[in-house]
Amino acid sequence: MRIYKAKDYKDMSRKAANILSAQIIMKPDCTLGLATGSSPIGIYDQLVEWYKKGDLDFSEVTTVNLDEYKGLPKDNDQSYYYFMHKHLFDRVNINPNKTYLPNGMEMDSKKETQRYTELIQSLGGIDMQLLGIGHNGHIGFNEPGTSFEKDVHCVDLTQDTIEANKRFFASADDVPKQAYTMGIKTIMHAKKIVLIANGIKKAPIIQKAFFGPVTPQVPASILQLHNDVTLIADEEALSCL
Known about the structure:
By secondary structure, the chain is an alpha/beta fold. The protein has one domain: Rossmann fold, CATH 3.40.50.1360. It is built from 7 helices and 10 strands. The strands form 2 sheets. It has a 7-stranded parallel sheet with strand order 1-10-9-6-2-3-5, with helices on one face. A 3-stranded antiparallel sheet has the order 4-8-7, covered by helices on one side. Strand 2, helix 2 and strand 3 form a beta-alpha-beta unit. Helix 1 crosses helix 2. The longest helix is centred in the first third of the chain and has 18 residues. The radius of gyration is 17 Å and the shape is globular. It starts with a strand and ends in a 7-residue tail after the last strand.
């Protein structure tokens, strides 16, 4: 495992974007696993900037996203489909037919999880997976206690997650109660993993996840067993190490 210390969020974003851009340059037809949320926005902004300068070409890149809310249409501004188009896909020359997310509007969970699992396999797996980390150690929507053996699956969102997300919706009743997510097993099959973290609130879980015991109670701790993981975090997030 490699650990890169960044000065702040901007520096973290640039360092992570450097690694993703190197992957694209070395393998133009690579498959990238992408994440949503506030953490990767700076990375996507940096990649867009380099694309506009002519330094990056996304025309052969394929992407697969970690997760999507179940029951949320693509045009809902809280869907991850909407997020990815807003922050990256609509700003670069990526082929929209090669950008994949779980289909949140498929109500048959078994059918959708099987489809997305088979899709990732058909692409030959993920060359580089970008991850954030939750305060409780979750990666994707894999909350504490989730089996390490799971492939793509449908999860019931915890009350804490629903509470945290309700500020983005008109009311708590509008917050999705389920989501499709890559499982731990799917994530661990990625050839390379890049995890980003920033801020003092992430410091305790970074210490637990990367220097504590490997346990399903800290889902990200499984990354200690992967042979190519890069952690990029700012000084605050690394302050417990």
